[in-house]
Amino acid sequence: MTTSDIIYQELQSNLEQEHLMLSKDLKHEMQLNTLVPSALAIENADLNNLIMMAKSSFIPNLFDLAIRMEKVDAAVYSIKLGMYGLCVDCEEEIEESELKADPAQPRCHACRDHSRYHHD
């Protein structure tokens, strides 16, 4: 196993842990802000619906949680698809240092610079 493989495994593990934590935090914050009628409704809700409700709530903390959850969720699914660490725009490898800074980073530095007005 190469150093890069070990680093990717660590990043993937961190992403999966962050995904679980964000999901719990999002549900908890939604309960605190009574955006959904009951705790059971929150537990049974689809993650995409929770994210949509949180983003449309205009509550800054919920909005920020939802945005991060979307990004982490996409990264977790890219792992399942075998595409983790590849830029969603150009499909080149994202620099290891950039993934260490943010394991959910979907774009390489060049694509972020090129399209910063369209994606951030």
What pattern of helices and strands is seen along the backbone? HHHHHHH
Task: Report mean pLDDT, rounded to a whole number.
Answer: 87
Low-confidence stretches: none
How many strand segments? 0
Q: Can you characterise this structure?
A:
The structure is a single chain. The protein has a domain at about 5-85. The chain has 7 helices and no strands. The longest helix is centred in the N-terminal third of the chain and has 30 residues, at about 5-30. The chain has helices at about 5-30, 40-45, 45-55, 60-80, 95-100, 110-115, 115-120. It is mostly helical. It is elongated and about 45 Å long. Helices cover about 70% and strands about 0% of the residues. Helix 3 (about 45-55) runs antiparallel to helix 4 (about 60-80). The chain starts with a helix and ends with a helix.
Task: List the defining traits of the structure above.
120 residues, mainly alpha, 7 helices, 0% strand
List the helices and strands and how they pair.
Layout: H1 3-32, H2 39-44, H3 47-56, H4 60-80, H5 96-101, H6 109-114, H7 116-119
Helix pairs in contact: 1-3, 1-4, 3-4
Could you write a compact summary of the structure shown?
The protein has helices spanning 3-32, 39-44, 47-56, 60-80, 96-101, 109-114, 116-119. It has 120 residues and is mostly helical. Helix 3 runs antiparallel to helix 4 (60-80).
